Amino acid sequence: MTVEQNYIDDILKLLIEKAKEAKADSQLKSENSSEQDLIFNSGRALAYYEVLSTMIGLAGIFGLSKEIMPTILFDPDKELLSNNQKP
């Protein structure tokens, strides 16, 4: 991989990790969390979904294949959307 591809791959890995955390936070209701906390975390998870969907969707246009960058195999629809919700 080129330096640029490594850079993008590393960013995608970090975004995927943060997105999974945001999804978990949006589904975690505890006695200390308010309804506003859940709404905020749900919006945060949706924002990560939008960013990752866009980046991964555009990867093919720029010639980035799964052989070059394995992180583009990540499926935001499957991994981040719960209850088959789509924006």
Quick structural summary:
This protein has 87 residues and is mainly α.
Please characterize this protein's 3D structure.
Helix content is 63%, strand content 0%. The radius of gyration is 15 Å and the shape is elongated. The protein has one domain. The relative contact order is 0.19. With 87 residues, the protein is an all-alpha fold. Helix 1 (3-27) runs antiparallel to helix 2 (35-59). The model has no long low-confidence stretch (mean pLDDT 84). It contains three helices and no strands.
Write the layout of secondary structure elements.
Layout: H1 3-27, H2 35-59, H3 76-80
The pLDDT mean sits at: 84
Number of domains: 1
Low-confidence stretches: none
Largest pleated sheet: none
Helix content: 55-70%
Oligomer: single chain
Tally of DSSP β-strands = 0
CA radius of gyration is 15 Å
What's the overall geometry?
Answer: elongated
Strand-residue fraction? under 5%
Q: Span between N and C termini?
A: 33 Å
Number of helices: 3
- Give the H and E element order: HHH
Helix/strand-derived category reads mainly alpha
